[in-house]
Specification:
By secondary structure, the chain is α/β, with parallel strands linked by helices. It folds into 2 domains: 331 residues, Alkaline Phosphatase, subunit A (3-Layer(aba) Sandwich), CATH 3.40.720; 68 residues, Arylsulfatase, C-terminal domain (2-Layer Sandwich). The protein is 31% helix and 18% strand. The longest helix is centred in the middle third of the chain and has 26 residues.
């Protein structure tokens, strides 16, 4: 009898051990050019985003989270590499024409999507890639088992899915011509992939990258009409952007509902963020922040961000400051996926699980190469900005000056020099990393 009891305990311990090693799924949702003030939960009075608001209320919401860049490609490179984008060959926007192409993913850099893939995760990218059109840098070569989406930068039309007359819609390597609004297509493809994964039982990692609300501002007509009827007197430009964001919110709601329906919501870590701040010329709202997309003032980089893992991460708001490049090191830490490559990104797992983690002790560098060079660096409460390589460096104390209105460069010359020297050293290191595809 004792032997049976001991054997039962042994089997139970093995089963519990296996249960403990079951890894959560990962769903990372990234909006394109979503302003810090462009969700109703972040203060927008003319906006209705119930699904994202609910997600935020169930998550740890980060109110001082920053994209690694003020434009698309670099932030996406930072996400999948866990590094400063300029150190993996993407200091600017990657495009399909030579004189507008400012990046090429370093073939020797490890993508963290590859790491998840090699640790048993089925990886998928649904939606916008924007990190290369050459064969060596297509999604299937950089860590994704499945790619269903858009290879290029912006679409010229949300229904026609072309850019300068070229079709960049793909199912893995196959060129496809789907019909429908791109936001709806990405939502449908995300749900289909989630439902397939539910039947397999293998952990999965999905990066769902919407084009919305990037221009052209083309919401479905019924969404636009709804906004105009609800918000009398709203400016036409603003109405279009509001409708495009609300349409995306509706799609995200369907994706989250599919997670719940398939029984995967409680074992899936859900991240929501944006690749940069809102574009002011398209009537974006960046809240009480200076400027927007294309600039390194906080309106260009501060983005709405949340992380949900039911039963593990408490619902709360935090001022803990982190960057896009920190997301995957943190998720890997939560999923017990070991990372052996050198990263600038750091894990904030402790903050997520306990709400108590010391602030990262590091300078934060921001760089955008696009004909000229824009730079910024933050160290604690202090921030310097060079809006282009020929401009003087500005200095702000964000603890007392959140609007970045009071340039202290003349009053703090020693601090200005120390920080500028560090920023220039980072630029010099970045310039050593090739960002153009090798000549064939």
């Amino acid at each position: 009898m004792k032997n049976i009891i001991y054997f039962s305990i042994f089997l139970l311990s093995i089963m519990l051990g296996h249960a403990e090693k079951v890894r959560p799924n990962v769903l990372i949702i990234m909006a394109d050019d979503l302003g810090y003030g462009d969700l109703s939960s972040y203060g927008a009075k003319d906006m209705r985003t119930p699904h994202l608001d609910k997600l935020m209320s169930e998550s740890m919401r980060f109110d001082d989270f920053h994209a690694n860049s003020c434009v698309c490609s670099p932030t996406r490179a930072a996400l999948i590499s866990g590094r400063y984008p300029e150190l993996v060959g993407v200091p600017g926007v990657i495009r399909h024409y030579k004189n507008g192409d400012w990046g090429h993913l370093d073939p020797n850099s490890t993508m963290l999507t590859n790491v998840f893939q090699k640790n048993g995760y089925y990886t998928s990218l649904i939606g916008k890639w924007h990190l290369g059109l050459t064969e060596e840098n297509l999604p299937n070569q950089r860590g994704f088992d499945e790619f269903h989406g858009w290879l290029g930068d912006m679409m010229d039309d949300y229904w026609k899915h072309t850019r300068a007359g070229q079709n960049f819609m793909r199912l893995n390597a196959e060129k496809i011509q789907p019909t429908g609004h791109a936001t709806d297509l990405f939502t449908e493809w995300s749900i289909a992939s989630i439902e397939r994964r539910a039947k397999e039982g293998k952990p999965w990692f999905q990066f769902l990258a919407y084009n919305a609300p990037h221009d052209p501002i083309q919401p479905p007509p019924e969404c636009l009409e709804k906004v105009k009827q609800r918000e009398p007197g709203i400016d036409d430009k603003r109405a279009g952007l509001v409708a495009l964001i609300e349409h995306m919110d509706d799609g995200i709601g369907k994706v989250l509902a599919a997670l719940e329906k398939s029984g995967q919501d409680k074992k899936t870590i859900v991240v929501f963020t944006s690749d940069n701040g809102g574009d002011l010329k398209h009537a974006a709202n960046n809240g009480p922040l200076r400027d927007g997309k294309g600039h390194f003032y906080d309106g260009g980089t501060k983005v709405p961000t949340s992380i949900r893992w039911s039963g593990k991460i408490p619902a709360a708001k935090t001022q803990f400051r982190a960057l896009t490049m920190d997301i995957l090191p943190t998720i890997a830490d939560l999923c017990e996926v070991p990372i052996e490559s050198k990263l600038e990104g750091q894990s904030f797992k402790q903050q997520l699980l306990t709400g108590k983690q010391p602030a990262f002790d590091r300078p934060e560098h921001y760089m955008w190469l696009q004909k000229t060079t824009k730079q910024a660096m933050r160290l604690g409460d202090w921030k310097i900005i060079r809006d282009d390589i020929a401009s003087p460096v500005e200095l702000y104390n964000l603890k007392t000056d959140t609007l970045e209105a009071n340039n202290l460069s003349a009053k703090e010359p020693e601090r200005l020099k120390q920080m500028t020297d560090a920023m220039d050293a980072h630029l010099a290191a970045a310039k050593l990393v090739p960002w153009q595809a090798p000549a064939k």
